[in-house]
Write a structure and sequence with these properties.
429 residues; alpha/beta; Rossmann fold; 2 domains; seven-stranded parallel beta sheet; 14 helices; 13 strands; elongated
């Protein structure tokens, strides 16, 4: 099957072709015809399967061929709203809109927290057809009257499971409350949890259901290996693997912001160009780090789980879990950064005795044991006893505040909004 068979216009096909794509991915094959028909869609697709294009392509075509609405208060009305959980994903979605819509007269903008709001005011005053936003900053603008959502024809929730996981459900409902009742709704999610289905039931009208991957299933072409190692020798082993294997592009996950900073500094001392990305970093620093990683100036990107979803890095060959996540589903999202869209990739986890329970949880989720490989010279000391690991986050559905949780700041969770007068939803680093 080619893109020509999906009913896309000549302008859309031209843009797709110029990006080097000829054959649609499974989620694109299934979702695009439904969206072009104007159907509501509930789509479950593993990260890296091309789901962003699955909704941007038909969205652009529907808006470009539909009747242009009248101006609202003298400016072009917002016709489509895309909500994403993180700044990085919002930026990437809006970039996709611009790339695929370059032969159309439609305009787009992206708004998120952690940056000066004044340029966003100016941008919104001009009017845009498609707005991509994080929930917190969108509510800021709604509160200040700087945008009008009364003309929205299509609402898209991207990474809906992640937004629920980050405590955005109340914000999403507040946004939905000000949208027109008659509109197309599209919900894209990496998993089909009970919470997702409940949200879908209240949001979607007779939706077409699209699911191209089993729930919480890692990419088939990702080779997964476990390297047992003592906790104090993890950094040494990681440095050795990267240097001796001549790995040129490596995404490394830690559990905490502090841990990410510390590891990045240590790897730099080992002579490896490294940057860290997490919620305490300014948006400018995060953008710079990610750009450097993509263009090859930065060899290693050390990240917390803020980067586990939404970072679109073509042909990323290596993902390393320097520390295992305490929530098994996060492991799947982490390793989903490699092996994207059919490419091969490798996911390595450095596991010390403290993390054996986390590893067992991951293997239960995957319904298989992951291969272990002891690296000569880094054999674990059997006399070392396990030490407890503080669990910074509980699974979804946990009632009440999470122990030790802190209000989200920066780009994680509430996107840097002042929460002094609002509830403090739980988040993680």
């Amino acid at each position: 099957m080619s893109f020509e068979t999906l009913g896309l216009s000549a302008d859309m096909l031209r843009a797709v072709s110029e990006e080097g794509y000829t054959v649609p991915t499974p989620v694109q094959k299934q979702a695009i015809p439904y969206i072009l028909q104007g159907r509501d869609v509930l789509a479950g697709a593993q990260t890296g399967t091309g789901k962003t294009a699955a909704f941007t392509l038909p969205l652009l075509q529907r808006l470009s061929t539909g009747p242009a609405p009248e101006k609202v208060k003298g400016r072009k009305p917002i016709r489509a709203l895309v909500l994403t959980p993180t700044r990085e994903l919002a930026s990437q979605v809006e970039e996709s809109v611009r790339i695929y819509g370059k032969y159309l007269s439609l305009t787009s903008a992206v708004i998120f927290g952690g940056v000066n709001i004044n340029p966003q005011f100016s941008m919104l005053r001009k009017g845009v057809d498609i707005l991509v936003a994080t929930p917190g900053r969108l509510l800021d603008h709604l509160g200040q009257g700087s945008l009008d959502l009364s003309s929205v024809e299509t609402l898209i929730l991207d990474e809906a499971d992640r937004m629920l996981d980050m405590g955005f459900i109340r914000d999403i409902r507040r946004v939905i409350a000000v949208l027109p009742k008659k509109r197309q709704n599209l919900m894209f999610s990496a998993t089909y949890s009970d919470e997702i289905r409940t949200l879908a039931e209240g949001l979607l009208a007779n939706p077409a259901s699209v699911e191209v991957a089993r729930r919480n299933t890692p990419a088939e072409k990702v080779a997964q290996r476990i390297f047992p190692v003592d906790r104090d020798r993890k950094r040494e082993l990681l440095s050795s693997l990267i240097s001796e294997g001549d790995w040129r592009q490596v995404l490394v996950f830690t559990r905490t912001k502090h841990g990410a900073n510390r590891l990045a500094k240590q790897l730099e001392q080992d002579g490896l160009t490294t940057a860290a990305i997490h919620g305490n970093k300014s948006q400018a620093a995060r953008t710079k780090a990610l750009a450097g990683f993509k263009n090859g100036e930065v060899r290693i990107l050390v990240a917390t789980d803020i980067a586990a979803r939404g970072l679109d890095i073509d042909m990323l060959p290596h993902v390393v879990n320097f520390e295992l996540p305490n929530v098994a589903e996060d492991y799947v999202h982490r390793i989903g950064r490699t092996g994207r869209a059919g490419a091969e990739g490798e996911a390595i986890s450095l596991v010390c005795v403290d993390e054996n329970d986390f590893l067992r949880g991951i293997e239960r989720l995957l319904k298989r044991n992951l291969p272990r490989e002891v690296i000569p010279g880094f054999e674990p000391d059997p006399s070392i006893k396990a030490e407890p690991i503080f669990k910074a986050r509980q699974p979804r559905g946990h009632a009440g505040p999470r122990p030790g949780s802190k209000p989200r700041s920066g780009g994680h969770g509430r996107n840097g909004r002042n929460q002094s007068s609002r509830r403090k939803p739980q988040g993680r680093a």
